[in-house]
Amino acid sequence: MGAYKTTNLYPFLEELKPEHAKIKKEILEVEEQINGNTRNINMIENFNSASSFYKNKTWNPLFAITQQGQSWHEFMRHHQFIPGRETLKGLDLIMGLEAVKEYYKTHIPYTEKVLSELFRKNKNEITNIYIWRLDGNKGKLPLHTNYDPHMYRCHFGVLVPEGDIGIEVDGIKKSWNEGDSLIFDSMRPHRVWNNTGKARYIVSIDCYRPEPNQEETRAVHKLLVEMRMKRDKNSNGLSGGTTCV
What we know:
Shape: globular
Distance between the termini: 25 Å
CATH superfamily: Jelly Rolls
Low-confidence stretches: none
CATH topology: Jelly Rolls
Number of domains: 1
Strand order of the largest sheet: 1-9-6-11-4-2-3
Number of strands: 12
CATH architecture: Sandwich
Strand content: 25-35%
Number of helices: 5
Mean pLDDT: 89
Structural class: alpha+beta
Helix content: 25-40%
């Protein structure tokens, strides 16, 4: 079937193209604050201990829009947690979620609106939507695989600097293009790198594979998520990456 997939697999991704300029504008402002060390942006680390590179500080999930087929706040409310914090209940959970909502409203109001609407219209196909930052100073994820047999991963290029930057899946190298989507099978060995000196940003969208028996596929996905959340809530139900070395 090949490591990379054609974009016509998920036609709804085309809806992001005309939104690229406004999304990029907000992300540039986020990056400006990071570079200015204003402490207004939380450089969230990957807390998933199931991932063999969870301590990698060059790769950050800055914003979660949807998680495991739910909006981020529905998912966190259901599991009573906020990534990186202890289990929360009652008023502490309510206040924590409200603080995150305000944080999103401050930094990515338009981007969250667009991506949330994309999910709303295609929630039978989309599971996760994240905004990921890859540092430009030797930022990388080593060769690894993910255990996600029910989904493909889509990267929508938001901010892609020129230079030595790219993704390699099954030995085939490609790069991201701003305003375009790149789809690949994350079950296959893959790695990413950025040596440009400037940060790369993508919107990462996990979608169910367009295969028959979708109801059974979603049931398997739900079971995997619940199992991972019982083991570690900070996994966000994600499989984590297993390095190949």
